[in-house]
Amino acid sequence: MSAAHEPSGSSAQSTGWSANRTLASELIVSVLLIALGAWIWFAAGRIHAPVVVDPLGPTFWPKILGAAIAVLATVETLRVLLKHSRSGIVAAAPAAEEGEDDSGEGPFAPVRFFGTLVFLGLYLYGLKKLGYFVSTPLFVVGVLVTLGLRAWTNLIISAVTLALAWWLIFDLGLGVPLPKGILPF
């Protein structure tokens, strides 16, 4: 083997390894979400209320949530498997360009993951103190910036739209009151 063939072989091996790692991580997350959805479904079945006020019962919405998580995770699993079977494992992950490093910019980036968890914790803490209409847009902006979105107009539009949509769904649609916080409305 000549020296000219050695780098391309090692590059193909590292690209194949990266693609296999990507496939494995995507499948692990999908399977864990399917298990979470199933667990929520079965745990909801053990909810017993002495007085049922809601005609749907206390288990309806938790079961819908569990089923939705499991179904969407199954769809994601199928999407991942189809994507990798069509393009081949090695072709699924592009080779790193010269000068690039694998420092957490892949499908599972620890900085993004833990950054999102930090913003979730701050959101849950601030929700009571600041209220829904202050903390939710800040949360959405924080998470989107953590995930890499930098266009401020898109950040503001997304934050306001999501906050209003969730308010319409929960407060007006489902009758779940959201924390008022420091704002009078």
Write structural notes for this entry.
This protein is mainly alpha-helical. The protein folds into 2 domains: 103 residues; 77 residues, no CATH class. It is 70% helix and 0% strand. Helix 1 packs antiparallel against helix 2, helix 4 packs antiparallel against helix 5 and helix 5 packs across helix 6. The termini are far apart.
Q: How many strand units?
A: 0
Low-confidence stretches: 1-13, 89-103
Could you state the order of secondary-structure elements as H and E? Answer: HHHHHH
Alpha carbon gap, first and last residue: 73 Å
Instruction: Assign the structural class, choosing from mainly alpha, mainly beta, alpha/beta, alpha+beta, or little secondary structure.
Output: mainly alpha
What coarse outline follows from CA principal-axis ratios? flat
Helical content class: over 70%
Layout of secondary structure:
Elements: H1 5-44, H2 60-87, H3 89-92, H4 110-130, H5 132-146, H6 152-173
Helix pairs in contact: 1-2, 4-5, 5-6
Task: Give a short summary of the structure.
With 185 residues, the protein is an all-alpha fold.
